[in-house]
Amino acid sequence: MSEHDKIRALLALAAAGALTAAEEKQVAEHVRSCVSCSNELDAWRPIATELHRLPTPQPSSWLVQATLARAEAKLTEQAERDWNRRVMIVFVAFAWLLTIASWPVLQFVIGRFGSLLGPQFDHTWIGFAAFTALGWLAGGVAAVMLAIRQRGERRLA
Amino acid sequence: MAVDADVVRLRRGDLNALSELITRYQNRLYRYLLRIVRQPAEAEDLFQQTWLRVVEKIRSFDASRNFDAWLFTLARNLAIDHLRRIRPQGLGEPLANSCYSETVADRIPCKDHTPLDHALAAERRTEISAAMAGLPIMYREVLTLRFEDEMKVEEIAQVTAVPVSTVKSRLRRSLEQLRYALEARYPGGRWQ
Predict the structure, then answer these.
(1) Does B66 reside within a domain?
(2) Which terminus of chain B has fewer Cβ atoms in its 10 Å neighbourhood, N or C?
(3) Can you tell me the ipTM of this complex?
(4) Residues B83, B1: one domain?
(5) In chain B, what residues touch A8 (CB-CB under 8 Å)?
(6) Which residues contact B150 (CB under 8 A, 6 or more apart)?
(7) Is residue B127 located within the same domain as residue B174?
(8) Do B68 and B145 fall into the same domain?
(9) Is residue B92 part of a domain?
(10) Which of B48, B129, B171 sits opposite A18 (nearest CB)?
């Protein structure tokens, strides 16, 4: 491709202001000495000018208000969800803390009263673990059911 | 790059920041969507969806990035998905009965020009709009981002997720097609 052809391919972009500084310089130098390219650039300019001046269609005010209302509702819903998540984390942490803290208490109870309840009482910790697991499982099921119900209510709303 | 204060506030859940951002970007975003989908009702729906997506994703937005490019990328993805859903067989096909609304401000004549100049200029813009609406989507998009939103080539590359060289080549082809369409309609450059 000759230098002339290369520059000619850049003329539309030159009118669009989409060239690098080096390309712009090249085009400007070539156009000064080439009438054909100079005319071609002049043909591109009014198109670029008119494209810059195209009227801007504007959204109606109700659209902006409706968008704002919907987006605000979503933002509020997100904030509520974040709050629920934080509360859930605190509750779970508290529940674990309570479970772990109850272990020394259990040890104390076993040590103090275990012998009164017979040899099977040595396995009480298994019962305790099962009880704790059942409690967590019930809590998990309740949380899932509540979440499903909440989602259903939101969908209806 | 300066971090947009409204974007930072929105990331913290500030409703006023959301209002500020919608007000600031409403015209540009609506125009961009309208240029892509060409139907006001569809553009309005996508306008709302875009802002809902902004609210949903704002926390994952890297505040050091360009918010304009991010916003237009979200809008673009939604618009492309929408077009794929409703017109899967021809994303780039020109659409009959496309309409563009002109604002009242556009109809007010400038003091420096005669009513005839104004009428001719309005006609030229109508011709350009019509010719632009007839271009494939990737060309309409690059034209509106460059000339109406005055984005740099690098920003357009970010929005459209293509290399700068591709943006330049699309820009050149879109201008060539536009010129070809105008010259076909008005031989001898009479549209100017």
Answers:
(1) yes
(2) N
(3) 0.75
(4) yes
(5) none
(6) A52
(7) yes
(8) no
(9) no
(10) B171
Q: Which residues of B touch A63 (CB under 8 A)?
A: 30, 44, 47-48
Q: Indicate whether B96 belongs to any domain.
A: no
Domain of B50, CATH number, reads 1.10.1740.10
Closest chain B residue by Cα to residue A48: B147
Name the DSSP letter for residue A115. Answer: G
CA angle A113, A116, A121 (to 5 degrees): 75
Nearest alpha-carbon partner for B122 in B143, B150, B103, B139:
B103
Residues of B in contact with A15 (CB under 8 A): 175
Closest-CA distance, A80 to chain B, in angstroms, reads 11
Residues 31-70 of A with CB under 8 A from B: 43-44, 46-48, 50-60, 63-64, 66-68, 70
Q: Which single residue is written with the structure tokens 């974040």?
A: A82
Q: Where in the sequence is the domain holding B3, given as residue range(s)?
A: 1-87
Query: Which regions of chain B are under pLDDT 50?
Result: 94-111
Helices (H), A19-123: 21-33, 35-52, 61-113
Judge if B72 and B121 occupy the same domain.
no
pTM for this model (two decimals): 0.73
Q: Do B147 and A75 touch (CB under 8 A)?
A: no
The tens digit of pLDDT for each residue in A7-51 reads 999 999 999 999 999 999 999 999 999 999 999 999 899 899 889
> Length of chain A in residues, anyone?
157
